[in-house]
Amino acid sequence: MNVYDSSRMADILRPLGYAQVDEPNDADMMILNTCHIREKATDKVFSEIGRLKKHKEAKEAKGEKMLMAVAGCVAQAEGDFILQRAPVIDMIFGPQTYHELPEMVLKANGNERVVNTEFPTVTKFDSLPEEQNQGAAAFLSIQEGCDKFCTFCVVPYTRGAEYSRPVDKIVDEAKRLVDQGAKEITLLGQNVNAYHGTNIDGKTWGLGRLIEAVAGVNGVQQIRYTTSHPRDVDQELIDAHRDVEKLAPFLHLPVQSGSDKILKAMNRKHTAERFYEIVADLRSARPDLVFSSDFIVGFPGETDQDHEDTMQLIRDVGFASAYSFKYSARPGTPAANMTNLVREDVKAARLLELQNLVTEQYLEFNLASVGKTMSVLFERKGRKEGQLQGRTPFYQAINVPANERLLGEFVDVKVTEATANALVGEVQMVENNIKQA
Ligand code: 5AD
Ligand code: SF4
Fold first, then answer.
1. Ligand 1 neighbour 72 (Cβ under 6 A)
2. CA-proximal residue: ligand 2, atom 5 (nearest)
3. Beta strand ranges found along 327-407 (DSSP E)
4. Closest ligand to residue 252's CA
5. What pTM, to 2 d.p., does this model score?
6. Using a 6 Å cutoff on CB, does residue 191 contact ligand 2?
7. Relative to the alpha carbon of 296, which ligand is closest?
8. Eight-state DSSP code of residue 273
9. For 149-184, how does the pLDDT look when each residue is reduced to its tens digit (9 = 90+)?
10. How far apart are the first and last CA of the chain?
């Protein structure tokens, strides 16, 4: 989401004459786009400001100006604190106000410090310029905000209430992205499958129907969506996994815990049993579908047995990838007032145990891919000279020795090697692939 927001900030700044540069020293403006989801992410902001302010000071010593901004959810949540603690910062603005950047830049250039953390009534989507080329794998934001209020989570406070963009605007944007070279579209939202946008006929569409409409756009070859919530997986979405060939067979579906007691305390509004049912329904709709998830260990009140329930869920479901975190209290959330805290060393031990298990699972899944041929979208140059990097339909990162002409193309690749983190492969049927390209 932040990668997408940053690219939209670049879109809105472009008409003002700004363009991206590679070196901070060449910049006239620096924007730190921040995340507030976990404590660690927030702590980084001040250390980054400290690191980057040298560039501004060096410019100012030469009599030149450089604006420095903090954007995103840390700005939203801690705007006043940043204003006091970091005098070097000229602009502070939340994720719902960056369409107002031209006015903010004008003020900041007039030496006024700007704090903009309102939730404006006019949605930013209606006032953003058209998006610029994002390449072959593009993001498309369809939904923002969250009304779920999981007790550990800041998102409902920093990103605000749920908002779904209208269907026709999304389909038009998908067409424009394809015209600019996109072949894969990832539909984005904090709670993407809570999507309930209005169609031109006045009807409300869920994510399942929207996916079908986006799949109908000529040139869209693969669709992904993220991040979803188990509660909002409905029959229409399950049907989309069955019927829409272009929908990738990979789903990130955060479950957080396998213990009903903890799920309840987290206000996740479903049981472990229900998660198993959803997974089973999705797998019967699309047998090759693989899952990824998010887990929090050490939520207040989590016992060894609760943790074991999470481990059991992981063993039962099997994940192709996972993100796992030690619980950290976030200011203003209900869980921050809970008193039955889990000791840090216990959290660390649980995290390690969980990560060892999921790493075994990815390794197993990746090793099972060796020898298979998959359609890989080459998104960027690889780390090694002469290699391209892309993702398989199952979202596995893969490095392949390949001609640069294949950048931005779907290419059949045979997987030759695997580690827990990535695959290596070779281009199949070069002639055909180049012809297609
Ligand atoms: N502590 C730890 N992890 C958290 N997440 C969200 N809030 C917290 C928190 N307070 C994790 C969840 C979520 C992911 C984006 O970040 O697992 O799915
Ligand atoms: Fe946060 Fe996701 Fe829960 Fe919303 S559904 S409160 S974004 S964890």
1. no
2. 148
3. 373-381, 387-391, 397-401
4. 1
5. 0.92
6. yes
7. 1
8. H
9. 999 999 999 889 999 999 999 999 999 999 999 999
10. 30
